[in-house]
Design brief:
Elements lengths: L1 H97 L1 H14 L11 H60 L9 H11 L4 H107 L11 H66 L4
Length: 396
């Protein structure tokens, strides 16, 4: 009986081992099937994930390439505008410099006209026009100096925008190269940086896609804004170039008209003085002859006066009653008185004629001096006009 019991236990033990093995085999088979299914599912998920990553990397590369192209276009536009603005700044600088020559000539004319003499040395219309022209030239220089400051600052802003665009392009080139490299990599080329990379990605990623897009859009918008301001400034400068050139030309023409008018006045005055001088010289010659004639007449009165006074003196020697006031005596006295009166009158006429001659001589000297003054004024203004003509046709 005891042996039967042991045999039963042995049978149960064997059955239990077999059953356990069968159960374990079933569990193992089930686990292998689940594992196989899991591996297949994971493989499929991984392939989908890898395809998704590959697609996203490709799309990202396209996005970067497109934005890089947009940035390159914006940079080209900014650089073109920089070139245009530099040319305008150089034009502004040359415009300021070009005003030095007319300023110098106008100043020389002002100084030269101080050399006018006598009655011609007063502030006339030419002086007023020269002062107005100098004032306008200085005003134009100051205006363009102010615009030069504005244009230089605008150029700095354009260059700053170009620098920012170029930096953005360089960053995108690096990013594009990295993503292109990632796209072409396979699992055998990846170094064992998984855990560290995951940690860094979580801590070092700084921007969201929206921020990335906005950053580039902001750079492009800034460049477009600076280009628009630069174009507006160049248009303003174009208008100033035209308006100031017209104003300066009008002022120069007005000054030249005033010079021509003044020269005509000088010439007319000198011609009138020259005509009068010729007449005065003729009158001096005539007056000299008239004085000589009066002197001759006075001299011709001397012999008869001497004769009459001698006769009277002789007849004073008549004795006693013979010293009578007879008709001859009266006649001689009347003759002497008549001759004395004639000489007196002629002497007065001579003095008057000599005074007139002195007046004519003074007029001659005054006219000579006035002609010299007018000639000096004409020479000064002609020299100014010649300088202005040379300046007018000098290459600008």
């Amino acid at each position: 009986r005891a042996m039967a019991t042991k045999h039963q236990q042995w049978s149960k033990t064997n059955a239990a081992v077999v059953q356990q093995a069968a159960t374990t085999r079933t569990v193992a088979q089930t686990d292998r099937q689940v594992t196989h299914n899991t591996i297949r599912a994971n493989s499929e998920d991984l392939q989908r994930t890898q395809r998704d990553v590959q697609n996203k990397l490709a799309l990202r590369a396209d996005d970067i390439e497109n934005r890089k192209r947009d940035l390159a276009t914006a940079l080209a536009n900014v650089q073109a505008e920089i070139t245009e603005l530099i040319a305008y700044i150089q034009h502004v600088e040359s415009t300021i410099k070009e005003k030095e020559a007319p300023l110098a000539v106008a100043g020389e004319c002002v100084d030269a006209r101080k050399g006018r003499q006598g009655p011609d040395l007063f502030k006339d219309d030419v002086d007023d026009k020269l002062a107005a022209e100098i004032s306008l030239l200085l005003k134009v220089q100051d205006l363009f100096r102010a615009k030069h400051v504005v244009a230089t600052e605008q150029l700095r802003l354009l260059r700053a925008s170009a620098f920012q665009l170029n930096e953005d392009i360089n960053d995108k080139s690096v990013s594009l190269h990295i993503d292109s490299t990632c796209t072409s990599m396979d699992a055998t080329q990846a170094p064992d940086l998984f855990r560290d990379t995951v940690r860094r990605t979580k801590t070092e990623t700084t921007a969201l896609p929206e921020e990335w897009e906005q950053f580039t859009a902001s750079n492009i918008a800034k460049s477009e804004s600076e280009i628009a301001k630069s174009i507006a400034l160049r248009e303003e400068l174009d208008a100033l170039f035209k308006s100031t050139a017209a104003d300066l030309l009008a002022a120069a023409n007005t000054t030249e008209d005033s010079f021509n008018s003044r020269l005509a006045e000088y010439t007319d005055a000198r011609n009138l003085a020259a005509q009068q001088l010729g007449k005065v010289k003729q009158d001096i010659a005539v007056q000299d002859r008239a004085i000589a004639d009066i002197q001759d007449v006075i001299a011709s009165r001397d012999p008869p006066l001497k004769l009459a006074t001698t006769r009277l003196e002789k007849r004073m020697g008549r004795p006693n009653i013979e010293l009578v006031r007879d008709p001859p005596q009266h006649a001689l006295v009347n003759e002497v008185q008549a001759l004395d009166l004639s000489v007196q009158q002629l002497s007065e006429k001579l003095a008057q004629a000599q005074d007139i001659l002195k007046g004519l001589i003074r007029s001659e000297l005054a006219l000579d001096q006035d002609i010299a003054v007018k000639t000096n004024s004409i020479n000064i203004d002609n020299a100014c006009m010649l300088k202005r003509q040379h300046l007018k046709y000098a290459p600008q």
